[in-house]
Structure formats: C-alpha cells, structure tokens
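Today's session is about reading a structure prediction critically. Students often jump straight to the picture, but the first step is always the sequence itself: look for stretches that repeat, for charged clusters, for runs of hydrophobic residues. Only then move on to the predicted structure, which in these notes is written as discrete structure tokens rather than atom positions. Here is the chain we will use throughout the hour.
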Amino acid sequence: MKNIFKVSVPNIKRSKLFVTSTILNATGSGLIMAFMMIYFNRTTTLSLSVIGLSVAIGRTLSSMVPILIGKLLDKLGPKKLSINGDFISGVGFIMCIFARDPITIMLTQFFIQTGVHIFWTSNRGLVSLASGGSDTKTWFGLIASIRNIGLGLGTFFTSLALETNSVGTLHLVIIASALLFFLSCGALLIWQPTLTLEETEDAGDTEKHSLKRIFADTTYRQLLIVNFGLVLAAMVIPLAIVVYVTEQLGLSPFFSGSLVILNTVIVAGLSTHVASWTKHHDPIKSIKWSYFFNLFSFVLFWLASITLENKLLTCGILIIAMLIYSLAEIISMPAANMLCIDLAPRKNNGSYMAAFQMTWSVGMTLSPAIFGYLLDLNKHSIWAVLMLLTIFIFSVGFRNFKEDK
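Below is the predicted structure for this chain, in token form.
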C-alpha cells in the first residue's frame, strides 16, 4: 500500500503554495456552494423557483466571461488571472449577506461565477505550471482529491450550522467562505513556480485561435458536448441533492450534508490513485464508463423517493447512489481535463481553454433555473430529466470520437 501511494502522488514540494491555495478555495466553496439554494431559501421569503431563476440569471450575465478570459490567458498567464478570480468570488460571497431580493441575488451570482470562470479557465494552466509538464494527469487527480478534502471540510461545518436553524450562523458561514477566498489570493500571489508556462510547452503553434475556429473543429466540439453532460451531472451536488433529500424526502440536513461529505471523501481518497492507475488508458472509454455510472446513480436517487415508508432502506439506497455517482466523477474528470489539453494546441490555447470552460458556464447558468423548477414540480422530475439528458448526450456526443484500440 505504501508503494502504491508513492506511485500515485506526484512531487508537490515546488508547488506547496498552489496546493494550499487549492485547499483554501475548495473549503470556501464547500462552506456554501452545496447549500446556496438552502441559504437563500432560509434568509429570504422567495420560493425555490424564484431563487433558482435569480441564480440562473446572475450566472447568465457572467456566462460570456470565458470568451474574454481566453484572450487574457494568452496575454497575462494563468497565475494573475486566478488571483483576480478568487478575489472577485470573495466579494460575491460578501454580497450574499445583503441579498434579500432577486436583483441582489443575481448580482451575487454574477460576481461569484465570474470569479469561478476566471479560476477554472486558468486552472488547467496552473496545473501545468505545478507539474512542470510531467505526469500532468496524476496532478489533475491530485487537485481533484485536494479540492474534495476542502469541499468536505466546508460542507461538514455548514451541515452543523444548518442544524442550528440560525440565520446569523449562516451569515458567519458566508463571511468565513469569503475570507478563505481572499487567503487563497494571497497564497497564489506568493507562489513562485519553478518553471514558466512557456517552459512546460513545446514551441509549436503560435497562431491565435478564434472560438469560431474551435467550434468548427469536429473532435473538439464533440469533447465540448460530452463535457456538457458531465457538467449537468456535476450540478447534482451543489444544486439538487441537499434540497431533494432535506425538503422532498424529509431527511435531516445533517444526513444530506453527510451524503455530500461521502462524495468528497471518496473523490479525495481515490482521485489521485485512479488518475495514476489509468493514465495510460483511453480517456474516451473512461468518460463513457462515467456516463453509465451517472445514469445508474440517477435511477437509484429516484428510487429512493418511492421507498419513504422505510427510512432505513431509503437512506441505504441514497448512500449506494452517492457511491456510484462518486465513482463516475473520479473516472471522468481527469480524463476530460487531459483531453481538453491534448486536443488543443500546445501554445496560445487560451481560446480552447475558454471554450472548454464555457461548457461549465452554460451548464452552471441553465441548471439552477431548470433544477429549481423541477424540484418545485415534484420529487421525481429532476431524476427523470437527468436520465433522459444523459442518454441523449451520450448518443450524440460520442458519435465521432474514436477510441484507442
């Protein structure tokens, strides 16, 4: 077991501050991201549909940010942009304290998501800096593990805060989240990578690439479609599972938070190892398997809604569903991130990174309104829609992808 651990974890000595920044960012996200709908539901008099729509509009306003980021990424580099992204998100969280109406909620989400888009568009470049261009897929697995440790810690503390049913306590959670994002800025500011991004890449392509040209690239366009399906699945944790389990199934907030923590523990514990063990495997096959696991987990999440007469059985089904859902995440994320890099030019690839991030921005923009509406409709609708979308995107997205033999 010790030898396996050594093989699976890359050398982080030269990038400790980057790792620290990732933990701070993830913990700040974990404190509130999975509870955003619940937070506004308890601190305002608005319905879930109105809250979901407000969140969606705010995210829509920020959805074009990746286009601008792509151009800035080539010019300024990922480190400077990431620092700005964390700071902007921190400001957005502070604004949540004063959000009582749809307009203010929209503004909070605009700032938070603008920062998130900046951070994630730049993140793949930061991983390349941290890895020095060596064993990058394992580094993606490591970052997934680190982020889930932070998300788990944040979710645990907020689950306890929700048990107090105190609005003041929720405001303290928001302040703590903002502070962690500001500290993440500081860690990145101090971090000095041993290599520049240019030194980790081949001289190769120096041409600037437009989004129009990227979308005309059949293979990369297929990747964007496939990743969009992964994004919709990823939205189950921050937008659906807590509301579904707590408000619709009538289980305790602590149990719903524990499901989120279970996801983070599994991903944190296994992502680095799975990424290392599968680094020579075909990433397209890995993503296909993740689609199958996601579909199976959605079936089980739905099944839990018809077994409520037996709470123990319902809890057991939800736990199994979360285990399978987590396995899908572990398999898919390093593979999708590596494809994002491998299918893009080695240099001046900011527009490619922006296009990939746009699948996240579009998914995160549309899903709050859609999920909010479906959750308000009944406890079955969200899983039925997710199952249908997963099947549809799978049938369309993998059509022109060729697997390695």
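Discussion point for the tutorial: The radius of gyration is 20 Å.
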